[in-house]
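# nightly structure sweep
# worker-07 picked up a monomer target from the shared queue
# config: single-sequence mode, recycle default, output format = structure tokens
# input follows
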Amino acid sequence: GSVVWLFIGDLYYLTERNNSEVEGKFSNMFNSMWWTLVNLNGEFPINEELTPWGKVVAIGTVIVAVGVFAIPTGILGSGLKDIYDKKREEAANEEEEDSMEVATTEEICRVCLEKEIEEMPLQERTWAHMEGRTWLGRMIDYFMLV
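# output follows
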């Protein structure tokens, strides 16, 4: 992502540094990188003042922003949601099975459970949060459902 940002910022600088209509917004590389970041995030506030080559760079920026950032983010988010839903369903099924049996052991205290979760590997801890087995996971669930 950083290489793309730097490359497009450089292209904007090369095409727009002498354009008086943009009032120095691309006068140096840092300003060009700022406006590139704005454009990569989907905002195009000054495109009417760009030179024809600057508009070509802007079109390329849109294509790159969608192709390199937006689509992979959506795919990754969708995949994580599917995994999250599957884990939630498995946890609900386990909870349902456990509720059908008569509990013969004492209930585990929250502090003990929190300590047990802290000792888990990172992936298991993440799932513990996502399943709502920790106070952090319960807070995330609460705010997602509100």
